[in-house]
Amino acid sequence: MRGGSSGRLCVRLPRRIPGPILFINQKGEILIWRAYKDNVSRVDWANFSSQVVAAKENRDKPVHAINGCHFVFITVGDVVITAATKDNVNVVLVLKLLYKMVELFRSYFGGTFDENQVRQNFVLIYELLDEIIDYGYPQILEVDVLKRYITQGGARSIDLNDQEQLKKITVQATGVCSWRAEGIKHKKNEVYIDVVENVNILISAKKERLRADVSGQILVKCMLSGMPECKFGMNDKLISSSERGKGPVPGIAMDDYRFHQCVRLSKFDVDREITFIPPDGSFELMTYRITENIESPFKLMPDVKMMGRNRLSMSLQVSSLYDQNITATSVMITIPCPKHAARATTRADYGKARFEPSQGAVVWRISKFRGKVEYKVDADVELADRVTDKQWVRPPITMSFDVPQFTASGLRVRFLKIQEKSNYKPIKWIRYLTKAGSFQHRI
Fold it and tell me: Where does the MHD domain start and stop, copy by copy (predicted)?
């Protein structure tokens, strides 16, 4: 499979998907049934509905085998989308197709997808299934293309008797650049690039780093006219090491990167530059993972002591490690307490801290956290008087935050070049944001 993360599924050889596609609710009731091959009987999918979906067992396994029939499925809210087969199929292709179908339905249903939306849009879903899959083979999955002739309410955005319009859609759907239509015009040519990283850090009670990695994505909002060709470069380790004679250039080593289908992979393999003709609007250009030289935006120094049988003393010192001109927002630190905690008295240098019984923790909220500063919170927790033989298993302190203009991996955009035959000069915007993924400190 090609590295494209959205759009049409591109494979080197045609791969047929399994027989039927099923939409099943949490009770095991079939909401949608679309068969592309007749080798899976009603008894087979009835067994899956009753033994797996309705029984709510082994939902974490994406593939189940029952009496020689394999069911590949994903769970989205209260709907289970399943593909069934008795043949040897490409499971990754099937899962990719199912997830892309969910993205497509959400774009039609206003961003939501649940059982209620399925019941209200039976006709639309069946029509979409017939368009995106032809004789069992994945076909058009481009939202922009499908919305031009499949719409809610039956009102089409084109005249099906207009041969010129139909020809344009056919060219876009089957051409080299199916994700972008010709003749796009914008009054103001702009492109926004957002580098969003989720940093995952786990610190032991002895203050040793047990885990540190970053899951990132590069989001693009394109409002460019015509058919522009974009070249995008980062401080990749291979590029940085080759730029000798230009001074020290910090480089990062990316793992598990995945591109949108518009990216020309052959050019990236040669010169490490991301070359692409972008879709119009917002899309995810690439995702990546980095495991080396991760810089934590915060340092936590906790101190938790049992003061007798009915009292717990807690203190936490938090330091911001990013630059002074950067301010983190929406900072929330959750300090867990024993289950039999009754009440707590808190004192915070900055922000608001209070004991929240519903979470069983002291929650410290800071709306704005400037760089290179240090804050502290103290809490005296009173425990309910009850006898228990079980020792308190201390859950880790967790933290959530948004840090703009900072990347935990050190990734930076080196350049963004845009070429179009009309030679206009677009406005370019580049933003960085680091968010907390799984940020924990054991106590």
Answer: 188-442
